[in-house]
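General statements about sequence and structure are easier to judge against a single worked case. In the encoding step, the backbone of a single protein was reduced to a row of integers, each denoting a local shape. The record that follows shows the chain in one-letter code together with its fold in token form.
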Amino acid sequence: MRVALHTTVRADRIDEYEAAHREVPNELTAAIRGAGVTSWTIWRSGTDLFHLLECADYGQLLAALEKLPVNIAWQARMAELLDVVHDYSADGAEAGLPVVWEL
């Protein structure tokens, strides 16, 4: 399945946000892959961030990551950088952007 997400980085923290993503912990990327993600891309336009990920089941992905210490630490770090924090707990499984059109 494909899931599109939208978040907003704080204008004064863009450089820090991008730097953090050059150093995503290997343990976290391994856990994300292990939970069924085959692709995850983030684009930035100004302070708007658009995520597109492909995974077997988004709800299962969130549940698998929710209690992992490396993910908890990452989410805390992102909360400092983002204006709008996406709910990456299992309760946030319905938070993806709705599809308007596809070709």
